Prior knowledge:
Blueprint: H1 6-12, H2 18-36, H3 38-43, H4 51-70, E1 79-82, E2 85-88, H5 94-108
Helix pairs in contact: 2-4, 4-5
Amino acid sequence: MAKVTWEQYRSLHHIVSEEEFDIAEAIAENEVQRVIGIIRWGQITEETYGYSQLQECICNVIDKMADDAKSVKGQGLASVSNDGYSESYVIQTAEQLREELRGSICAWLSGTGLVGAY
């Protein structure tokens, strides 16, 4: 059963449409579960300390993943040079994006005890 409903997400977040929500929510839960750990994840109930923070974290993961997909992060040019003018862009791999997301999840769940010592 999903930890976040469309109504909860829609109340404060507006990036993902209702048609995309179920899939986005399931993917976001999987990402959060990877950080928390499968055993701890299975023990979480609505009475768990920090449950509302967990729900907000899942909503933030949905938004972050949607933003990353829209901005096409991880793709593009590494550098551009034209007659003395140069510009460089950071290219992120899928691993780097996942590590960035992991850090964000740990920050969002900080103080709940759900991600260990964070």
